Give the backbone structure.
Amino acid sequence: MPAESALLLASAASAADGSLTHPLLTLAVATPLLLALALALAGERRWTRGAALAGLGLDLGLALAALAELHRRGAASLADTWLGGQIIGDAPLLAIDRLSAALLPFAIVIAAVAVMVAPRVGERPGLIARLLLALSLTLAIFATVDPRLLALLWALSLIPPLLELRGRGPSARQASRVFAIYMGASALAFAVGVALRGAGEPALATLATGLLVAAVMIRKGITPLHSWSPAFFEHAPLGSAILFTAPQVGAYALARVVLPDEPALVLRGVAAAALFTAVYGAAMATTQADARRAYGYLFISQSALVVVGFECVSLASFSGGLSLWISSGLALAGLGMTLWVLEARRGRLRLDRFHGGLEKTPLLAALFLLLGIASVGFPGTLGFVGEELLIDGAVLEFPLLGFAVALASALGGIALMRAYFALFTGRAPRPGPNLFLRPRETLGFALLGALLLVLGLWPRPLIADRAEVARGLLEARGAPAVDLETHR
């Protein structure tokens, strides 16, 4: 078990203020699961969406309450020892720290918007229940610090998207097979890597390192282990694909299990592969004819920058990587949902011709553009703050990094504008589909857009929180947290 996790578990189990007085984490993880079961048993009803949103509102309140309790006490971590959070051995089943506390509401917001905008047609029955099940597994991952439990949840979280792919019929058979091979390999590698971490043999420890790194690279879609990702986005239901990828579970496993103990050379190699992925993915996104594949490549490009920040010793660049985790997750999730909504009205979207319709749906076009530019770090959005910190903190050590990040953002911007012009400009067919947004869809997209703009214009609270997380992770690595001003 990594040193940081061991220390965290010990403090959570023994400190007087290390236990939650209410079962907030247990309820936060269980609420979407119980709601999913209830909706699955009830079947499709007119009130299904409303019930799901009410439950997610409650869940968001629980997650925010746990976050507030952690900050109020000033504790390093808080363990939930109620009901499903009983202590097993020396490790609490559910616990949060500064790294994971903000990730719970982050995942819930993404799921809530997905439920708001989920189309009524074009998807198999029970979609909302399946989205809630996927959310429950993601929350359970973020609410555990025990690598053994994380390995189990890692494997369980693969089941919903795999079932979704297989439910798409013969057209998705190849994508389902590829996804099963890659994700099965990642789950097995992660489980074996965790099991071998405690071995005293140097050879086994080296093997464990390689397995853990490979597992994270597959889950994150880092080149050359990314082949599953474009096909997954092309064939899976977009809502399910977004909930599987946007929270970036691979980044959490990297920070929780790999980062504290692995040598700098290993982390530098992962960061180099991630930096190449950022440029490669953005370049590939500019050439795709299918909108889903273009989105898949853009996703792996921008999300890879999170991993780049993890290799840096500068506090600013590490904080930038952690901030990009939040900003890219929100923005890319929103961008994918705009494609989901548009596809439900038009059918499969192509980028090799102009679809038109800007005059019929200026609001959807504006939201697509806003969420897209936020995902590539446009000024005024949270993504810009994260990328600026990442570049400023790391370019002094690695001059080429700043150029590569800027190149990835530029190519991502080109891919975004190409998609925007193809999807919304030109002469629309007559009669065309109804492209006006429903109130619930407008509300969902407005929520994401407002979050990205408000946090972009007033980033200090989030950046300060992520800086504290970065300082703790750097200290767990044994690397000094170098402030930007000091480094200069």
Summary: The longest strand covers residues 77-80.
